[in-house]
Every structure is written in structure tokens, then in C-alpha cells.
Design brief:
about 450 residues, mainly beta, five-stranded antiparallel sheet, four-stranded antiparallel sheet, disordered N terminus
Length: about 450
């Protein structure tokens, strides 16, 4: 006997009964009418087609005038660049990143860093669509691509990766050009644990501490590097130590901002880094992991957690004069500064209304306004019987919880915090991701 025989027999009886009643002029109730619908197979029943109401997670790391770099839930953990006008022009940038350090793939300019496997590094020119090999020196590690400039961390030797001797810059467009050393470090700067935190096509901002500190990631200073000369300007700017790879630092066209350990945002003019500043205390309920700059306004997101965090995390604009305005009621955790002005954020009203937005200055001097750059398709409902997470589907596959399958609930932030809390060893996936880029980032061994 078929394993579906008992399931089909009651439906067959209902269908016969329904036919008889219709012939007799009896009106059927909606329940019976629904049950009398043709049944092709048990596995094709959409018992609970909308069990996933959490938006598709979209982690954005860079936005340019023609496209953006992102990792989309459901894409197999692949980082890619997508063209706004023609999504078919998307370029895969590599798999298994585990975490997304600032400017790893670029900052939205002409060039993209592409990794097609362990030891395979390329630079892609978005204006021509061509790629060339990026040679990785054995005594240095790649740290980021800011506009047309590559940042490298230099180690004592190819055999000694436990000591950092400095940083230097290389041209993405002219590989034959001589490297430019980053100069101006304090004598007691802890170079080994320094981290690229923010920047654009003309400056890089590096967080660092001092040797002899009780904690290796006790970031007490910001170093603003002029990418045309390599000269570093030091700012006395202690920042929260809760995360290593995510920093509450933002660089706008004419300003730089950071959050200190007392939740105060400091804003200074880039043309007068040692000059006067504006400040604004972040209200309770807003996170200190990330901030954005849009004109005179500071952007911050709510401090939410859980599988539905994006649905409970607002995007708020704050002005140094005390004004504030909620721009979005629901948003992802990332705030991505856009070279040339503005900041990008993903959010919306529900899982079916989720988009990538660009926050730009308002013409009347008011709070920033949001421009929609691209709508994000929601996750399609699963077909098949509604099984509880962890149960086995009739196909033999085990269903994962939405948060387990996608790494939601702030995967980026929790990964970074995990690294910072364990002296940069992190998880095995994170460790492998660091080593894939050629050299460990501040690790104590090869």
C-alpha cells in the first residue's frame, strides 16, 4: 500500500461528498471547499509558506557611484560587487570571509580587490572590466584598498610575523611605483595590533595603542594618514575596545568623527585635525559599534540583538546642536560611509520591503534624507510541510533555524567581538580568512 494512501483517502471522500452536495444545490463552507482542492503530493503542500518573516540579511562594505560590495544571505557566503544598472555585471570577490574588515575589497572607487582562492589575489579595474594579479610580498600583509591606494603591514621578515616594523602604501594603478612608507608614528606606538578603521580615497584612519598597555587592543589613538605622502597625524582619541575589526570611526568629505569610551561622538574638521571640535553624547539605546557622517549630522543605529534584530533596530540622525530624527524604524547594523559624501544603510518596513538606501544631506539643512539605491528581494518561502527548525524534511535534509542558516543577530559584530576577546585567534574560519590574504593580521605566529 502506498504510504500516502491513508492521507489521500479522506480527501477523496471529501471530494465525492462535495460533488454530490453541489449537484444537490447545497452551499459548501470555505473550509470544505479548501479541503476539496486537488492534491498532487504531500511534499508540495505550502502548509506554512511565510514562516520566515526576518528580512534577507545584506551586509554592505562599500558603495560607489555605479555599484556596491556586499554579502547577501542565501548566496553561499560569497562577497560580490553588483552593478546598480545591470546586476548581471556582478563580480564574485571570494568565499568564506568569516568577517568583513574595513576596505578589504575597496571603498567604492575604480578598483576592487578580488580573492579567487588561497594565494590568488587580483585587482579589478571597474572602468575596463579587466583584472591583473596582485603580488603579495612574503614579509607583508594586505590591509585594505582606499581609492587607488593599497595599504600593507610590514613584518620583521617572512619568517618572523610576530613583529610589525611599519606600514606602507602602494599604487593600485601603477604596480611599478615605489612603495610609500607611513611616517610619523609615536616611538611607543603598538604597530602590530593597529587596525585600519576608516578612510576614503585621500586618507586612511588607523586605530592603535601604545606598547606596555595592559591589553593589546587598548586603542588610545587614531592615526590619520595622508595617502598622497604617507604622513600620519596622531589624534588622542581613545575608542571602545569591545570590537577589533569594527570601529566607531567615520570619515566624510570634510569631517572626521569617532566615539569615545563614554559614548561621546567627537567631530573635527579634516583641515584642522588639532583644532576645535563638536561633540554629541549618544542617547541610551543606540549602539557604539558604528557611526556615519552625513553633512553636519551623525548617524547611529539602535543596539538590538536576536534573530529579528533588524526589525527592532532604528536608524537615527543626530545633530551636535541637540536635534535628532529617526530616519528608519528598522535597519541592519552596518553603516557604510560613501566616498564623496553620504552613507549607506540597509533597512525598510518589513521582510518584503527591504532596500539599500543612501543617506544624503537635506537641501534645507534638516535631517538627512534617504535615497533608495536598490530593492532587496525577500527570501522565498520554503515549500513542503511546515517543520520546526531542526526537524528532518521528507527529502532527508535537516532544516536549520533562520538565524543558524544565515548567521543573523549581528554576525559581523559578534565575529569581531570574538576576535577582540581572544587576542585575534578568533574562530577557525576567521583565522583561515585572515591567512588567505597572504599574511596574518597582527597574529603572533605564522
Amino acid at each position: 500500500m502506498s504510504r500516502f494512501a491513508r492521507a489521500r483517502r479522506p480527501r477523496a471522500r471529501i471530494a465525492v461528498l462535495a460533488t454530490t452536495m453541489l449537484a444537490s444545490g447545497v452551499v459548501l463552507s470555505p473550509v470544505i471547499t479548501a479541503q476539496a482542492s486537488p492534491i498532487v503530493g504531500i511534499d508540495q503542500l505550502d502548509v506554512a509558506p511565510n514562516w520566515r518573516d526576518v528580512p534577507r540579511q545584506e551586509t554592505v562594505t562599500a558603495v560607489g557611484p555605479t555599484g556596491y560590495v556586499h554579502e547577501t544571505e542565501g548566496a553561499g557566503g560569497q562577497l560580490e560587487w553588483t552593478d546598480f544598472a545591470d546586476p548581471a555585471k556582478s563580480v564574485p570577490l571570494g568565499y568564506g570571509k568569516g568577517f568583513l574588515p574595513f576596505a578589504e575589497s575597496g571603498t567604492g572607487g575604480r578598483w576592487l580587490y578580488v580573492q579567487r582562492g588561497i594565494g590568488s589575489h587580483y585587482l579589478r579595474d571597474l572602468t575596463t572590466g579587466t583584472e591583473r594579479t596582485l603580488d603579495m610580498p612574503r614579509d607583508a600583509g594586505y590591509r585594505g584598498l582606499l581609492g587607488d591606494t593599497l595599504l600593507f603591514q610590514r613584518y620583521a621578515s617572512a619568517e618572523d610575523l610576530s613583529t610589525t616594523t611599519g606600514y606602507y602604501l602602494r599604487s593600485a594603478g601603477d604596480p611599478a611605483a615605489a612603495p610609500v612608507p607611513v611616517t610619523g608614528w609615536p616611538a611607543d606606538a603598538d604597530l602590530h595590533h593597529a587596525r585600519l578603521a576608516a578612510g576614503d580615497a585621500s586618507v586612511a584612519v588607523i586605530r592603535f595603542g601604545r606598547t606596555g598597555a595592559t591589553q593589546p587592543y587598548d586603542y588610545t589613538d587614531l592615526g590619520v594618514v595622508d595617502l598622497s605622502t604617507g604622513q600620519l597625524t596622531v589624534l588622542d582619541a581613545p575608542t571602545p575596545t569591545g570590537s577589533v575589526l569594527v570601529a566607531p570611526v567615520a570619515v566624510g568629505p570634510d569631517r572626521i568623527a569617532w566615539v569615545d569610551r563614554n559614548r561621546t561622538v567627537h567631530v573635527r574638521q579634516r583641515s584642522a585635525l588639532a583644532g576645535p571640535e563638536q561633540t554629541r553624547v549618544l542617547p541610551e539605546g543606540l549602539g557604539t559599534d558604528r557611526i556615519g557622517l552625513v553633512g553636519d549630522w551623525i548617524l547611529a543605529v539602535g543596539d538590538a540583538s536576536g534573530t529579528d534584530a533588524a526589525l527592532n533596530r532604528p536608524l537615527v540622525a543626530l545633530h551636535p546642536d541637540g536635534r535628532s530624527q529617526t530616519l528608519l524604524g528598522k535597519a541592519e547594523a552596518e553603516l557604510t560611509q560613501i566616498t564623496g559624501g553620504g552613507a549607506a544603510v540597509v533597512g525598510g518596513t518589513s521582510s518584503s520591503d527591504w532596500s539599500l538606501f543612501k543617506a544624503v544631506p537635506a537641501k534645507d539643512g534638516g535631517a538627512p534624507v534617504l535615497e533608495k539605491l536598490r530593492r532587496l528581494e525577500p527570501l522565498r518561502p520554503r515549500r513542503g510541510p511546515a517543520l520546526h527548525p531542526g526537524a528532518e524534511h521528507p527529502s532527508g535534509q535537516r532544516l536549520l533555524r533562520p538565524d543558524a542558516a544565515s548567521g543573523r543577530a549581528g554576525a559581523h559584530r559578534s565575529s569581531a567581538a570574538g576576535v577582540g576577546g581572544r587576542g585575534d585567534e578568533g574562530t577557525g574560519r576567521q583565522h583561515a580568512a585572515v591567512r588567505q590574504r597572504g599574511r596574518p593580521y597582527g597574529l603572533s605566529g605564522p
